[in-house]
Every structure is written in C-alpha cells, then in structure tokens.
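The authors assume throughout that readers already know how a fold can be written as discrete tokens. For illustration, here is how one protein appears when written out as sequence plus structure tokens.
>
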Amino acid sequence: MKKVLIIGPVLAEWVEIQGILNTLHFLDKEYKIEIIDPLSNITAEMNENVFFSQWRVKLKPLIAEYHAFLGFSLGGTILQTVFDYFENTKKPVVLFSVPSFADALLRDRLGTIIRLIKEKSVEAAIAAKNQLVFYPAVPPEYKKIVSNPINAAFRLSFGLRCVLAMDSRSLMTKNVNYLHFIGEKSQLVNRHNVMTSSPTQLIEVPMAGMRVLTDNPEYCQMPLIQFLEEKK
C-alpha cells in the first residue's frame, strides 16, 4: 500500500486534526495515511527561519519514502519551501488553502488573531480563527476551556507568524507539477495571494472556504484521486 504524508495546519490543539482526517477516509483503500503536526517541536527560543530550516532537514530523507505529500495551510507552506526537493520528480504534491505570500488582507486578519493572543484572550483568538477558517459554514460549538491555554496560545501565535513570514513566490518557479485547492469563499486564501507556475493545477472549489474537503467533498475527491494516480 502506497504511503501518503500529510503535514497539518495551525491548530490550537492537535486533537482538532481528527476533523480533517475524517474527510480523507475515501483514500483509505488505496493509501496508508500518515500525518505530522507541524508545530510539535516548536520552542520559545525558535524563530520562523529556524522553524523552516529544521523542516527542510526533516523532509529531505522522507521524499523517497512516500508516494505523495499533502499540505494543509501551514503544512502546505512548509512543502512549498522544499519545492526544490520535488523538482523533476514524479511525486504528487497537493496543497490545500496555502498562500504564496501574505497580502494585506491576510496580514490584517491573522494579525488580529495574534493581537488577541497577546492580550491574553486565547478563547477570543480561537473563536476569531474558527470564524475565518470554517466560513461559509458555521464553526462548531467551541468548548470554553482548552486543555492547555498557554500551549494553545503559543501554538496559534507561532504558527500564524510562520504563515505571515513566508514568501514562496520565488520558489513557485520550480518545475513541480502540483495540485492546489482553494475555496471560492475563503476569507484568507484566494487568487490574490496564491501564485501558480505553469504545471500547476489550481482548483477553486465552489461554495467552499478554507476547508474545501469539508465544504464541498464531491467537487474535490475525484480530482484528488486522479492526480494521485496519474503520478504513479
């Protein structure tokens, strides 16, 4: 069974990843899914440059091990930074709602969440993030107490700062044939802050926000399956 590596998005608590994993069950018959928390090893001493440098080191030996790589939001940003590893290979790379750079709108909206965290309003920050991420759907009812508020605040702040810090436009010129899903109604990632190169397949998913596989699974599943299979 072919293995697929997924790098997840910015989540206050990693347990939230189950919602994304539930949308990928249609791949279970053909692929063994493995997923990595992109924020599992962050420390207070680490900055964004060190974060991305460590990921370059971590991913290099994994390229040969997996059939395909999927990146959600920050996970996709990480994959974009190692596009040179995928250049001229047949490895499928799939991005979900990944900005190439932070435009003014993205900076403003993510900046608001980071500001709320600095003001010690972790619950308000999570609520603000969920409003943006789950739109146009209503976000799930938020539990008022996270298991570790200090860690949740640190994860959110650090992860969002990494998204804002990365400008991948120069990397998008690499000869990597990748598939990128963005939501038509996304409040964060859209055609204004997504750059594509000539081999790219960019799919704007109707009636979907950041979580395209949740909002419109029927529109996404077949193109994803076909892309993974044509890269055998």
DSSP finds nine helices and six strands in the chain. The radius of gyration is 17 Å.
